[in-house]
Amino acid sequence: MKTKVAAIEFGTSKIVTVIAKSSARNNHCEIVSCGKVDYAGYSSGDWTDWDNLSKAVYNSIIAAQSDAGEKINEIYVGVPCEFIHVRTADAEVPVRSADGRVHIEDIQAVEDMAADVYKFTESDDCVIHRSPAWYSVDRGPKTMQPEGLRGENLSARISFITASADFIDDMRAIMGNVGITINGFLSPSLGEQLLCTAVKDRDDGCIFIDCGMYNTEFSVLKGDAMVYHAVLPFGGNNITADLADRLEIRYDEAELLKRSATVGEGINEMIRPPESRDKEGRRIRYKPEIICNMITVSLEELCEYLKRTLFDAKGAELTARSRIYLAGGGITLLRGGSAYLSKYLGREVAEVSVNTNKLQSPEYASVLGLVDLIFDSIEQRFGEEETLPMRVVDTFKGLLGRSKNEDEE
């Protein structure tokens, strides 16, 4: 049986609407159509250009519809990183089964207890995900699969992702104006991280860095959950803007110049640099070492942000072995950028790899993660758990949270 869905994702500089289909029998996802539109983005938890947001959303949806040759009537909405918050709560419950083994009811009970500890009903924001970082029986070794273990008490650390009530209201208004029903709100960040990271790395604790145009998202994953989340006010745009200011050239010229450069100790080379001319029409010849040095100065500023954030996140059970994953076009599209970041932080950095028929660049990992998350949640809710590994299904139990007002109805 094939399922087809539409989803919209808000990046820092572009809105991407996709129509995707999946066959539940082979766990395969295919992007049917894609509508990408540039827009002003968001900053500090608010839209940069609210007046033109509806138009950008509409144009993105129209482009996806045109590409697919069909109309979108229902859609899943991805909540951007600046409109979510991540909190964790620890809880413990007695194992109530007669045989003294952990059953699914005990797992549900400890997750519900964590929700009571968190007290999310006191917030106007909506809980859109809850997922486990780990479980433990009688304070023993941490595990992601406690079912069947024998003990007296089951403890857990559960992560909750909430979406801003203002964002949800904005989306309901915009989609309502064009007659599109919202099927659910999900976190593309969580979907991207689960899609692109290895299970073993998450069990040990790993770091996910998504550097976009205007900001950089820093997350720590443990088990199947985000346990730390921060948004840094620095992205690929800062590097380009600094280059444009120092050379007194247009932004688009600086972007092309940046993408032609290769950074790294002792490298300083440029591959097919753009042709630039001064006011008199004379060709400008840039020295590679000067351009690369300018880029490196800006890149170091981002690295310092990341280094400080890495220090702040030490309480999230990171170890010296915790691996770093890198996504987003802010660094991955800069030659030598990930290697430079790896050397600066003193840790191995692995660029994420995602392959689809339409979107293959690391900068699209977020929307692909959103689609993957949607299909996983659909299969779980419609009782087709046998098509997925049990751990993945367990991750999405209670996936779509309810807001305070919905709980009161």
Q: What integer is the average pLDDT?
A: 86
Poorly predicted parts = 383-409
Let me know the largest β-sheet.
5 strands, mixed
Classified by CATH, the class of the largest domain is: Alpha Beta
Instruction: Assign a percent range to the helix content.
Output: 25-40%
Query: What sort of overall outline do the alpha carbons produce when their principal axes are compared?
Result: globular
- The N- and C-terminal alpha carbons lie at a distance of 35 Å
By CATH, the topology of the largest domain is: Nucleotidyltransferase, domain 5
What Rg is obtained from the alpha carbons, in whole angstroms? 23 Å
Gross CATH architecture of the largest domain: 2-Layer Sandwich
For the largest sheet, list the strands in their spatial order: 3-2-1-6-11
Please give a quick description of this structure.
This protein has 409 residues and is α+β, with helices and mostly antiparallel strands.
Would you give an account of this structure?
With 409 residues, the protein is of the alpha+beta class. It folds into 3 domains: 2-82 and 165-196 and 357-395, ATPase, nucleotide binding domain (Nucleotidyltransferase, domain 5, 2-Layer Sandwich), CATH 3.30.420; 84-163, Dna Ligase, domain 1; 231-351, ATPase, nucleotide binding domain (Nucleotidyltransferase, domain 5, 2-Layer Sandwich). Helices cover 36% and strands 29% of the residues. It has 13 helices and 20 strands. It has a 5-stranded mixed β-sheet with strand order 3-2-1-6-11, sandwiched between helices. The protein is globular and about 85 Å long. The two termini are 35 Å apart. Residues 383-409 have low confidence and may be disordered.
